Amino acid sequence: MPAVHASAPGKAILFGEHAVVYHRPAIAVPIEDVQARVYVLANPLGNVGQIQLEAPAIHLDAELAALEADHPLRLTLDLLKDAMRLEHLPAMKLRIVSSIPVAAGLGSGAAVTVAMLRAVSIFLGRLLPDSSVCALAYEVEKKYHGNPSGIDNTVITYRKPVYFLRGEPIQILRVTQPFTLLIADSGIPSSTAKAVSEVRLGRQHNPQQYEALFDHIGELVEKARQFIENGPADNLGALMTHNHQLLRELGVSHPKLDQMVEVALKAGALGAKLSGSGQGGNIIALVRPENAQAVQQALRECGAVNLIITRVTGKP
Ligand code: PMV
Q1: CA of 49 to the centre of ligand 1 (A)
Q2: Which of 18, 63, 129, 267 could form a disulfide with 295 if both were Cys (CB 3.0 to 4.6 A apart)?
Q3: What is the pLDDT of residues 149-166, one digit of tens each?
Q4: What Å distances lie between residue 279 and 106, 150, 295, 296, 303, CA to CA?
């Protein structure tokens, strides 16, 4: 039997990270330039339930049963098995490959989960609807990020720009004027769970200040939505830089991220901010296409890695 496979893109949060955990809106887009892909092969010689996993990027070559019960790959398959009301999964071999940088705020974990749920469900002949993929991926996120808003699994499952409000039905954004983003990795690993828990502690100590910052971020998100849906897209730049400032006040930036934002702006970006949980990971910059290379070069010189220039069109 030939291998079946499925893939899922990376993602970038354009506006509203952290505040989104506290029921303010956020906007995120899929990044198709990077992908997680899962191949599934039948293993006719294996016993029922015997699943071989291979993920070269994380040096994993093991049987599923040998992984800890709460390992994300094992958890994903256990959740899928239960959702499909199966006693056992058939014997199979899974190969996971991904070009999404890990711990950089590009959603690598959620993308592997979504690709795996899709690939295995195709293999089983029962492709899951997006709503089920998204819900199962959220369960895996919960295990790893403590209190995730659900934005990562949503944008990665639906592969469309989204306006996201925790607990509400997904709203797909229409992009009137496509725009160009530059994504640049600081090379400093970022831990979503750590950043989210530090914001939680900050809010406990200083609820008024944090709630005011969340409100302010929420207002930027509403303005950004207008510019994405009605143009002019260039106006998103100033909102991004403002959002970065508010994230700094929340305590989730890093001197390297602040420096990269400065460098991008000096090199002609229309705006820039950290993206995702922060304390490391990526910044995103809004650039004019003719200026993208210059901004990219300036960021590279200041130490950025894994640079991606991508066009947000809202089209698949
Ligand atoms: O997974 P990351 O690093 O892109 O961060 C997720 C965004 C947060 O708002 C910080 C957390 C969440 O669950 O929404």
Answers
A1: 34
A2: 267
A3: 999 999 999 999 999 999
A4: 14, 20, 22, 21, 16
Which ligand 1 atom lies nearest to the CA of residue 13? 4
pTM of the full structure: 0.95
Predicted pLDDT at 103 = 77
Is 78 a residue of the active site? no
Q: Give per-residue pLDDT as tens, 191-231.
A: 888 999 999 999 999 999 999 999 999 999 999 999 999 99
Tell me how far the alpha carbon of residue 17 lies from the centroid of ligand 1, in angstroms.
Answer: 6
